[in-house]
Specification:
disordered N terminus, 10 strands, 46% helix, eight-stranded mixed sheet
Length: 395
């Protein structure tokens, strides 16, 4: 697929992709990591931004997971002192303590602090962390304290027009990300977000060029789409009003003119009845999962997409068709990673980058893993191509 480059107003090139759904458990972090890496595989310079106070993306990329998974605790009583797992846990916690203690200003929270604390200095581009093993891929780490900005930003977004003292906050995030992206010559900024409808997420979605909504094949994902069909148009109207507000326009960090368009959905975390083939690249889901995949597609096609289209938050439908995206706007279907996921986390690489040595398998088990890795590589490659094709069009 041929990808065009879109020049943005003022000559700045980076475009922002937000990965958002206020329903939890839909693999937003995993999708962010795998998509961003694939975009870098395709020669793009990509900045991942961890905007979730839980810092899961930072943990995955740097091996700093703040907690030991519950499934790994023995009998729910914790790990015995002195055993290998306990020592690994201690090393992880010590590494996390060291990182967040010594890299405060490199985190999203620390970098935004001058604006939210009204310090007499401008925000500066962040010295982001190059991701080991993938040239052109960078991380702007998260911080647990990012949630402290929620209330201040919420007040500012509602009252900045009438209270000039708050005028710098709504545009601060956009200014910081664009300055950082320009410093690193970034093509695409991909943001991992928390599952909430708070002011931070409203701001991040509103300053994005493209929105991707991860879902899973279940009833709560349908409820989430119905909710977002009401929420996102309201956010779009707020962003348009904010961009035209005279007070915000004269701020040190002006709120930008909104360009948000829906990229589409991702449906993931389903089990397969038959493995993927060239003819069936997503594999054949088990009966119950297939049924709910179809219900999510229907909810998107008949409710979610029309609501966003009516608010000007979609591309022309011809653009989706040209990119090979169905009318449900499902960009990709991604099956459960199963045993590949912990390996991916152990080696801090996407599932489709795992090597035979890293898998540590043999025989028929290795053959099965190789087939799944090949399938996932095709899926994420097509996913990335579709995202790039849409972003190549004037929004």
């Amino acid at each position: 697929m041929s990808i065009k480059t879109t020049h943005k107003p003022g000559g700045f090139m980076a475009q922002i992709i937000s990965m958002f759904n206020h329903k939890g458990g839909v693999s937003k972090t995993t999708t962010t990591f795998n998509l961003a890496w694939m975009l870098a595989n395709k020669g793009k310079r990509v900045l991942m931004v961890d905007a979730d106070p839980q810092c899961n993306l930072t943990g995955v990329v740097l091996g700093l997971n703040p907690e030991w998974p519950d499934d790994d605790l023995e009998d729910g009583l914790g790990l015995l002192e002195g055993d290998e797992e306990s020592e690994d846990f201690d090393k992880t916690q010590s590494a996390a303590e060291d990182f967040w203690t010594t890299n405060f200003e490199k985190t999203l929270f620390g970098a935004l602090k001058p604006a939210f604390d009204s310090e007499p200095r401008m925000l500066e581009a962040v010295d982001c962390i190059p991701v080991e093993g993938r040239d052109g891929l960078f991380l702007l780490p998260g911080h647990l304290r990012l949630g402290e900005y929620e209330v201040s930003l919420g007040i500012a977004q509602e009252l900045a027009g009438s209270m000039p003292a708050l005028r710098n906050l709504p545009g601060a995030m956009h200014y910081l990300l664009t300055q950082t992206a320009e410093k690193l010559d970034i093509d695409y900024v991909v943001i991992d977000m928390s599952p909430s409808l708070g002011a931070l997420n409203q701001n991040l979605v509103s300053i994005s060029d493209q929105l991707i909504v991860p879902t899973s094949p279940d009833f709560f994902s349908i409820m989430a789409l119905q909710s977002l069909a009401r929420v996102l148009p309201r956010w779009g109207r707020w962003a348009k009003t904010a961009s035209q507000n005279e007070v915000l326009g004269e701020a040190s960090y002006p709120f930008p003119e909104p360009r948000l368009k829906l990229g589409g959905l991702v449906i993931q975390r389903y089990r397969l009845y038959r493995s993927a083939t060239d003819d069936e690249p997503y594999g054949t889901p088990t009966g119950p999962f297939q049924s709910w995949i179809e219900k999510v597609e229907e909810a998107s096609r008949d409710q979610f997409v029309p609501a966003l289209a009516a608010s000007g938050l979609t591309f022309d439908m011809d653009a989706y068709e040209a990119a090979g995206i169905p009318s449900s706007l499902v960009l990709a279907q991604v099956q459960e990673f199963n045993s590949l996921l912990p390996k991916s986390q152990d080696f801090h690489v996407p599932v489709y980058e795992l090597s035979d040595v890293q898998l540590g398998q043999a025989g028929i088990v290795l053959e099965g893993s190789r087939a799944q890795i090949e399938s996932l590589n095709r899926i994420f490659s097509q996913f990335a191509d579709r995202v790039l094709e849409l972003l190549s069009r004037e929004s």
